[in-house]
């Protein structure tokens, strides 16, 4: 099962899709798979498909309107700052025209379910956290979502094939990056920010400190000694070539005591880990504008729940069961009150954030959960999760014979110490500019032609954040800034809404 990234998001202009096609990892077949969604309420009432389709189309329209604020000159209604507030405002206007109270209630439940689904797509706890004016900064590539049949790790094989095995070191966590050092009588020492006469300001293009340029220029931009990866160090462990090593301005210390000396560091540490450790990871601390960017951006938690069965029990043509929870009974989606997210509350309600169970195969179901509920789910034993999911399916399908799964596998992205969450989104009050600031390289001194520290990862791509292709492109740009003679040209991916993209959107890629 796929515990991490699930899809290639879009086809046109997506480098991950191009790699997948080039290496025969996806096959393009013009036969759409049958996709039948059933939506039911807690008392087992199945919603007519026409109503489901009507509400889904209205919802997509509301979401597109939120997207438009990023580029347009209009202002949203007063006191509406988040995507959730704006969509709920539109939902109320829409539902005011529905006379039948039962129909109105049902339509509200479908909207609530779609908003929960959106928290998993966006990577947040609640859509009220997501900035309305910045939602459109995310660029969607045309062509729909594609699953890799051999799993996402199959993409890594062709990408790592050219790298010598000894150049990739695992299980060696980094403790500290000394990135701004100056020559002293005993060698190179980390600059003490407090006592240095700093030249850097938040407005400047480069973050600089007076510092004599290192004489050596072989470390990571050339392919000497078979070390041809941008993050490789010319020496590990210190004293062997101490004379030449002291010319390297960067020193990376690991938890096991080993030391790497280099001219450049490419930092792809996830935003969740930067949020927790940036003050202790970098020496000296990151410039103020960068620390602010890390603190402003949101790194949400999205988890998966896989349920494996001995035999199929859902009707063969059903591909997904949408769960229309009656949230008003629990006041789940309206209250921003922190107290309701006590352990006691989450214990009774965490599972109501699961918006659907979708078939991966006839005997494998997948549920998604986000935010605080996901964090709480990570603390539970898989058996408890499996029992709760069985209870949910029996209730919504009104079938006491729904079997228990033979196996339940849950992800735990928030608890993992090297991720601390899932992916990046822009919360109320933050800006696309925060991502751009986070991506800015750091220069050790004002004369340096190339940066000392370069940042990459999905959290550093200002229009493809939260995606694998965003991470890939940011890494490629970072590597080019170290390898190229000059600053790299900006990579811009444009996709128009021509007939070709519309045609591709209708293709099933399996």
TrEMBL record:
Residues 213-233 have a biased composition (Low complexity). InterPro entries: Amino_oxidase, FAD/NAD-bd_sf, Flavin_monoamine_oxidase. Residues 192-244 are annotated as: Disordered. Residues 192-203 have a biased composition (Acidic residues). One of its GO terms (molecular function) is polyamine oxidase activity. Residues 1-186, 248-482 form the Amine oxidase domain. Its cofactor is FAD. Keywords: Cytoplasm, FAD, Flavoprotein, Oxidoreductase. Its main location: cytoplasm. Belongs to the flavin monoamine oxidase family. This is Amine oxidase domain-containing protein.
């Amino acid at each position: 099962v796929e515990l991490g990234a699930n899809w290639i998001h879009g086809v046109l202009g997506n480098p991950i899709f191009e790699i997948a096609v080039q290496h025969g990892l996806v096959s393009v077949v013009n036969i759409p798979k049958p996709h039948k969604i059933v939506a039911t309420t807690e008392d087992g009432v199945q919603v007519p498909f026409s109503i489901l389709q009507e509400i889904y189309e209205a919802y997509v329209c509301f979401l597109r309107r939120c997207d438009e604020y990023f580029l347009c000159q209009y202002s949203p209604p007063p006191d509406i700052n988040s995507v959730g507030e704006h969509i709920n405002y539109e939902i109320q206007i829409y539902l005011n025209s529905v006379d039948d109270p039962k129909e109105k209630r049902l339509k509200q439940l479908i909207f609530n379910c779609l908003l929960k689904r959106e928290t998993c797509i966006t990577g947040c706890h609640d859509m009220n956290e997501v900035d309305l004016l910045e939602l459109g900064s995310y660029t969607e590539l045309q062509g729909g979502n594609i699953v890799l049949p051999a799993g996402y790790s199959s993409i890594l094989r062709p990408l790592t094939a050219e790298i010598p095995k000894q150049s990739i070191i695992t299980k060696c966590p980094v403790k500290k990056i000394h990135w701004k050092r100056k020559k002293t009588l005993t060698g190179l020492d980390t600059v003490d920010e407090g006592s240095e006469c700093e030249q850097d300001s938040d407005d400047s293009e480069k973050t600089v400190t007076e510092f004599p340029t290192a004489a050596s220029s072989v470390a990571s931009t050339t392919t000497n000694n078979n070390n041809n990866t941008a993050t490789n160090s010319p020496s590990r462990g210190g004293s062997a070539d101490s004379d030449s090593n002291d010319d390297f301005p960067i020193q990376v210390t690991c938890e096991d005591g080993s030391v790497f000396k280099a001219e450049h560091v490419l930092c792809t540490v996830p935003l969740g880990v930067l949020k927790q450790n940036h003050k202790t990871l970098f020496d000296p601390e990151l410039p103020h504008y960068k620390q602010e960017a890390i603190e402003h951006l949101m790194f949400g938690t999205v988890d998966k729940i896989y349920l494996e069965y001995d035999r199929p029990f859902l009707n063969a043509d059903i591909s997904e069961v949408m769960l229309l929870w009656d949230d008003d009974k629990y006041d789940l989606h309206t209250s921003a009150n922190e107290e309701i997210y006590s352990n006691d509350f989450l214990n009774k309600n965490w599972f109501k954030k699961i918006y659907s169970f979708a078939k991966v195969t006839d005997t494998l179901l997948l549920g998604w959960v986000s935010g605080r509920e996901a964090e709480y789910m990570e603390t539970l034993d898989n058996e408890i999760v499996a029992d709760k999911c069985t209870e949910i399916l029996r209730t919504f399908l009104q079938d006491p014979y729904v079997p228990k799964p033979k196996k339940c596998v849950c992800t735990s992205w928030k608890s993992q110490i090297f991720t601390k969450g899932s992916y990046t989104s822009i919360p109320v009050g933050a800006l696309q500019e925060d991502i751009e600031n986070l991506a800015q390289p750091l220069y050790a001194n004002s004369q340096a032609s190339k940066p000392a520290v370069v940042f990459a990862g999905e959290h550093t791509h200002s229009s493809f954040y939260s995606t694998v292709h965003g991470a890939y492109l940011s890494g490629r740009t970072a590597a080019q800034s170290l390898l190229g003679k000059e600053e790299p040209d900006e990579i811009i991916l444009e996709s128009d809404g021509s007939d070709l993209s519309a045609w591709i959107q209708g293709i099933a890629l399996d």
